[in-house]
Amino acid sequence: MQHLIGVSQLTWEEIDKLFQQARYRLKQPTGHELSRKVVAILFFEPSTRTRFSFEVAIKKLGGETINFTTSGSSIEKGETLEDTLCMLQEMGVDALVVRHSQNGVMASLAEMLEVPVINAGEGTLEHPTQCLLDLFTIHQEFGQLASLRVAIIGDVLHSRVAGSHLRLLPRLGVQVLLAGPPEWMPDSPPPGVRRVSMEEALTCDVVMPLRVQRERMAESSLPDMAEYRQVYGLTSDRAEKLLPHAIIMHPGPFNRGVEIDGEVVKHPQSRIFRQVAHGVAIRQAVLEAILNKRSDAQCHRAIQMSM
Ligand code: CP
């Protein structure tokens, strides 16, 4: 893995290796594996979980981070994103963790740059590390993935998390069911992905409501939030009807009282906070896979040059 752009690039063998390393990192969260590595973190959209879990992941492994903010940078003087990242590459940073609103930007950055690019959320297209940590949480819970039924509920259309899940989960034998307002369903879901009623969604092994992404919708197309909760919210009443072994997940941030009731966030079947903890371990595994491989390549070049 040179870059992590999207989940389609990953084989099950690679994912399984990342899971093995993430399990190790849950037991041993600190080390020196990223010592002397400098990772630039560039978020052009807001974030709490992803941004800080990358920071925690890097720092616990002995690496350094530099945080880029548009304000005060030469982007304010008209410099492009591409030129900005080229400058950071020339300065010798070891990886770029990037969140950006433009679909397709990560692939063009990866084509242009040698320094590893890690996609930390791309428009409505992909959020690969969130997808991996969600999948890891499911795998930790059930010990396997094939034949599980995962319900994704709500604003699928605007969700990059759903974008990655729809690309990866069916490929791994997971049955994905979608419930929510018809206008927020994808036009052409991947083969095997079905639209179902809320009642059927609530019979799944994993129930994952999504945030209503108000910032990606025109004010006029927003539903009444109380009505939305009534029809599609994971309310306390609905949470009580889940199968006893089922788990509740949410990529966050959550709108309490809209797609999920406040009390459901801490429901005994909720794994929402565990997802956050797994986020650090998975990001450590991804960084180690990318940066340690790079170190091997650099060592190889150094040996060749010294011969
Ligand atoms: N799940 C997620 O991407 O959350 P943040 O926007 O807080 O990073």
Walk me through the structure.
With 307 residues, this protein is an alpha/beta fold. It is 41% helix and 13% strand. It has helices spanning 12-27, 49-60, 81-91, 105-112, 128-142, 160-168, 198-201, 225-232, 236-240, 262-265, 272-306; strands at residues 38-43, 64-68, 95-100, 117-122, 149-153, 175-179, 194-195, 206-209, 247-248. The structure holds phosphoric acid mono(formamide)ester (CP). Phosphoric acid mono(formamide)ester binds next to helix 2.
Oligomer: single chain
Mean pLDDT: 94
What's the SSE pattern?
A: HEHEHEHEHEHEEHEHHEHH
Number of alpha- plus pi-helical segments:
11
Q: For the CA atoms, what is the radius of gyration?
A: 20 Å
User: Helix amount, in percent?
Assistant: 40-55%
- Please report the total strand number as a whole number: 9
- Beta percentage is 5-15%
Low-pLDDT residue intervals, each spanning 5 or more residues: none
The biggest beta sheet is recorded as: 5 strands, parallel
End-to-end distance:
27 Å
The assigned structural class equals alpha/beta
